[in-house]
Amino acid sequence: MVDKQKFYPLSEAVALAKKSSAVKFDAAMEVHINLNLDVKKADQVIRMPLSLPHGTGKQVRVAAFVSEGKVKECQAAGADLVGLEDLIKEVGKGKIDFDIAVAEPTVMAEIGKVAKVLGQKGLMPSPKAGTVTPDPAKVIKEIKAGRLELKTDPSGIVHGIFGKVSWDESKLYENAKAFIQAVIAAKPSGAKGTYVNSIGLASSMGPGINVDPKQL
After folding, report:
1. Do residues 73 and 133 both lie within one domain?
2. Which single residue of 2, 9, 124, 190 could bond 44 by disulfide (Cβ 3.0 to 4.6 Å)?
3. Distances from the Cα of 123 to the Cα of 29, 132, 151, angstroms
């Protein structure tokens, strides 16, 4: 079904990624963007929040490291784990039962006690990622609604989920387009030459499909 030598328009790539899913579960739709960046240099790293038009369809567990006065509103916003000293102790023991962490700026010094543990898992709250904020409840609601984090991996690739195979093609297309355009718009100041090396779409465990970057 997939021509590995062809670069497909985004709309065709989305349709083909959806059609070529062969698993029995409702697979995630993934986008992988290989960028010409040297992420060892601070001015060539991407890390920022992104809210897609239709969310991601992925359920995430959120931990909120907050002061006592913010506990109830964070719980009401949908945080799965809320606290400070108790959460820090659990993390220190190696118990990490969440996918993303949100924190108030005022508690970051306390979280520093387990910064190494969280950092190794890629879970350390960060102002760049929008997860260090004076309004954690608002961010928690956005994350639960499908907000994700754009982040370059050690190879300079940005990975993300933009929906589920069962979704309408129009929603998947709009999400994929928003994701790719956000990465293009986030071009770091230190990037040189060709910025986007390649763009690929796939369903979970499905074949990779090349997207024509010139179209975008």
Report:
1. yes
2. 190
3. 23, 12, 12
Looking up residue 106, the CATH number of its domain turns out to be 3.40.50.790
Report pLDDT for 102: 96
Q: Tell me: the pLDDT tens digits for 43-101?
A: 999 988 898 999 888 888 999 999 999 999 999 999 999 999 999 999 999 899 999 99
Q: Which tokens sit at 81? A: 């784990």
Q: For residue 5, is it within any domain?
A: no
pLDDT value of residue 148? 86
Q: What per-residue confidence (pLDDT) applies to 184?
A: 94
Same domain flag for 140 and 155: no
H helices within the chain, ranges in order? 10-19, 71-77, 85-92, 108-111, 115-120, 136-144, 169-185
Determine the Cα–Cα distance for residues 198 and 211; give it in Å rounded to an integer: 7
Total number of domains constituting the chain: 2
Give yes or no: residues 170 and 202 share one domain. Answer: yes
Closest to 162 measured CA to CA, from 61, 83, 74, 51 = 51
Residue 2 lies in a domain: no
pLDDT digits (tens, 9 = 90+) for 89-147: 999 998 999 999 999 999 999 999 999 999 988 899 999 888 999 999 999 999 998 88
Residues 6+ apart with CB under 8 A from 196: 33, 34, 35, 36, 183, 184, 213
